[in-house]
């Protein structure tokens, strides 16, 4: 028997990670001590490391009493813990993609604000420019009601309001699409996978789709791996804090509804999704995973069979702990005539590979739903 320390380390990106220097944020650690033989410890989930360019981190270490790392695991079975509530409510079943206007409007906001500030500065220094002989532009007045406004401001204000108008239009379109979709529910496909799904190997199986609608143009299947946010309770526990004290860096004070239902990461950093119907538990838009990569894609043969290439990088298998959540999912994508695609999502359990996985310099994904896509729309 030997004494082994199983160390879980995490520095997970909050919603708006660009506002926080990752290296300045603490790395939370949780250590479990086990008295197991070398053969027994090799049957545990193996070590892995997932890290971004900025320093956001998810890591599992296994070290003996001499400080030596376990770096030659045998192939083990997947984590057989039940899927976390986040998967059950937000990553299975039918989903639709948000309107593209959401992304366009968000990209326009920065430009509109910069334009507004530049205009205000110009109007402030315009008298000085006139004194030195530089002709002014757009400073003549236009009367609206009882007040006079510079012509330049009449141009700027509509530009500033345009992103808001686009967002409103996109939300109304999305609500209409949600209403149309749920007015005629579609039956769930039935998918059967090969007996052993191992990271680094192809995914094969068969899928049966009970019904196909006339406006369906084409279908393809994909698979996808990434990390889901740790539970708020787990982060508070390993930070030696509690619910009534100052929350750890990146977390907000307690929020009603969502974090209690384990449906977000508890950071309260911003709007992660356009307007959704409140009667659909978990929502109708598929949230991006912060660390993630797509595997291959495949068409579906006449008998329903498919074979999908693995992701280009080797990833750990499925992990369903409160602190570490490595999630694999199978996605059926249906392109439709004159409508956005439909996605059907099925979580899958994947075994770990034989090699120790160390992924570094990964790119962090934007957490906003309108940034999520699978292949080409």
What does this structure look like?
The protein contains five helices and 16 strands. It is α+β, with helices and mostly antiparallel strands. It has three domains: 2-64, no CATH class; 85-97 and 187-371, Immunoglobulin-like; 104-178, no CATH class. The strands form four sheets. Strands 5, 10, 11, 13, 14 and 15 form a six-stranded antiparallel beta sheet that branches. Strands 2-1-4-3-16 form a five-stranded mixed beta sheet. It has a three-stranded antiparallel beta sheet with strand order 8-9-12, with no helix packed on it. Helix 3 (101-131) packs antiparallel against helix 4. The radius of gyration is 26 Å and the shape is globular.
Structural class assignment: alpha+beta
Number of helices: 5
Q: Which geometry do the CA atoms define?
A: globular
CATH architecture of the largest domain: Sandwich
Spatial separation of the terminal alpha carbons: 55 Å
Let me know the largest β-sheet. 6 strands, antiparallel
Mean pLDDT: 83
Strand content: 25-35%
- Any idea what the radius of gyration is? 26 Å
* Uncertain stretches of 5 or more adjacent residues: none
Q: Helicity range of the residues?
A: 10-25%
DSSP summary, beta strand count = 16
The domain tally reads 3
How is the CATH topology of the largest domain named? Answer: Immunoglobulin-like
Quaternary organisation of the protein chains: single chain
Using the coordinates above, name the CATH class of the largest domain.
Mainly Beta
Instruction: Report the order of strands and helices.
Output: EEHEEHEHEEHEEEHEEEEEE
């Amino acid at each position: 028997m030997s004494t082994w320390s199983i160390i879980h380390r995490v520095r997970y990106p909050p919603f708006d990670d660009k506002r926080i220097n990752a290296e300045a944020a603490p790395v939370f650690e949780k250590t479990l001590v086990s008295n197991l033989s070398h053969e027994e410890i090799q049957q545990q989930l193996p070590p892995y490391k997932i890290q971004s360019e900025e320093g956001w981190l998810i890591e599992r270490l296994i070290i003996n009493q001499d400080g030596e790392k376990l770096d030659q695991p045998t192939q083990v079975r997947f984590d057989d813990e039940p899927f976390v509530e986040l998967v059950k409510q937000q990553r299975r079943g039918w989903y639709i993609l948000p309107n593209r206007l959401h992304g366009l409007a968000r990209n326009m906001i920065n430009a509109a604000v910069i334009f507004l500030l530049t205009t205000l500065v110009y109007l402030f220094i315009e008298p000085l420019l006139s004194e030195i002989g530089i002709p002014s532009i757009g400073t003549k007045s236009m009367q609206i009601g009882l007040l006079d406004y510079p012509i330049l401001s009449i141009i700027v204000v509509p530009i500033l309001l345009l992103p808001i108008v686009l967002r409103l239009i996109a939300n109304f379109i999305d609500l209409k699409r949600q209403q149309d979709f749920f007015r005629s529910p579609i039956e769930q496909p039935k998918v059967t996978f090969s007996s052993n799904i191992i990271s680094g190997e192809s995914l094969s199986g068969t899928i049966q789709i009970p019904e196909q609608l006339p406006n369906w143009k084409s279908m393809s299947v994909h698979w996808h791996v990434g990390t889901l946010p740790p539970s708020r309770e787990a982060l508070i526990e390993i930070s030696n804090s509690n619910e009534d004290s100052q929350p750890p860096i990146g977390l907000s004070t307690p929020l009603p509804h969502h974090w209690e239902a384990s449906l977000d990461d508890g950071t309260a950093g911003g709007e992660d999704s356009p307007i959704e119907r409140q009667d659909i538990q978990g929502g109708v838009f598929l949230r991006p995973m912060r660390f993630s990569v797509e595997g291959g894609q495949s068409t579906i043969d006449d008998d329903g069979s498919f074979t999908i290439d693995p992701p280009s990088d080797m990833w750990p298998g499925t992990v369903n702990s409160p602190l570490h959540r490595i999630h694999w999912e199978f996605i059926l994508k249906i392109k439709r005539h004159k409508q956005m695609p439909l996605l059907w999502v099925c979580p899958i359990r994947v075994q770990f590979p034989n090699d120790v996985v160390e992924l570094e310099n990964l790119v962090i994904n934007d957490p906003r739903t309108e940034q999520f896509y699978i292949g080409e729309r």
